[in-house]
Amino acid sequence: MGKHKRYKRVRKHLEFYKLNFALTPPYKLAVDGEFIQQCLRYKIHIKEQIPKLFQNTVVPCVTKCTVSRLRRAGNQYSGAAIIAKRFERIQCSHEKGVKKEEECLRALVGKRNELKICFGAQVVSLRNSIRKVPAAPLLYIREGVPIFEAPSKASQYESKEKSSAKVGLSSTEKKKVQEAIEEEKGKQEKLLRRKRKGPREPNPLSRKKKKTHKVASAPKKDKKESKPEVQAEITVQKEKTVSDAERLRRMRRRRRGKKKKKASLEEKNDGDGKEDKNEFSLGETEQ
User: Fold this and answer.
1) Three-class SS of residue 164?
2) Looking at residue 58, what is its pLDDT?
3) What is the mean pLDDT of the chain?
4) Which ranges constitute the DSSP H helices of the chain?
5) What is the 3-state secondary structure (H, E, C) of 210-265?
6) Nearest-CA neighbor of 92 among 72, 107, 70, 110?
7) Which of 250, 256, 261, 287 is the most exposed place for a label (fewest CB within 10 A)?
8) Other Cβ atoms closer than 10 A to 62
9) pTM more than 0.70
10) Cis peptide bond upstream of 26, omega within 30
C-alpha cells in the first residue's frame, strides 16, 4: 500500500473516533516494550514518524510497569529501555506496586477507555484484549511499517447504538412496532399450522418411466443369403448397359455405311459424265 493511501486511511479512522468517541488531538499513545523494540529494530523514530502518520501531534507515553519490564529484560532491551525513559509517564490505573506489563495496560484501557488513549501494542494477546474494548485506537508494526488498525467490531457496535439512541422512537411508535411484529408472527404460525388438502402428486421428475413393450420386428436377412440376389441384380444392370452401348455402336456404323455409299455413288456419276463429254468432243473433231 502506498504512503498516501495509508495516510488517507488513518485520517478516516481518526475521524470515526472523533465523531463517535470525542477523541481529539493532541493524541496520547501508550506503547508497550515490544513496540519500542520493533521501532528500534526497523529504525522508526517514534517522536517524528508517528505524528506524520497521525497528521497531528502525538505524545508517546509509557507506564512504570513497562519501564521496569524493559530494565529486567537484559542487554537485548537496553536500547528500548533508554528510549522509554525519554517518553512521558502515565500513572498506572491499578493498585500500588509493579505488575506485569500486559495486566497494567489492560487496567489502563479499562472497559470503555475513559482516558481516551491510543495504544501501540506489539504483543498479540494484548492486542486482542484491546480490540474488545470500544473507543480504543490500536497501532502496531508490521514488517517495518507502522499500521493504524481499523475500528474494531466493539467500537463499531458502540457507534451504531449511539446513532440509534439519537434517532430514538417515541413510546407510541414502539408499541405500534411491537404490535406489527406480533401480527407477523401470528400470520407465520397460521401458515405453518395449515393442513394440506388431499394428497399431493409425486414429483414428475422422480417418477419411473413406464415400460413400453417393443413390437417384434421381422428378422433381418443374413448378409450371406442376400449376396447372390445382389450379384444377380448387378449382372442384369451390366447386361443392360452393354446392350445399350452395342445398339449405339450399330447405329453409328449404319450411318457411316450409308454416308460411304452415297459418296461412292456420287463419285461414279461424276466419272460417267466426264467420259460422255470426252467422246462428244472427239466426234466433233473427226467431222
Assistant:
1) helix
2) 96
3) 83
4) 3-21, 33-41, 46-54, 64-72, 78-86, 101-109, 124-131, 153-166, 171-193, 223-286
5) CCCCCCCCCCCCCHHHHHHHHHHHHHHHHHHHHHHHHHHHHHHHHHHHHHHHHHHH
6) 107
7) 287
8) 27
9) no
10) yes
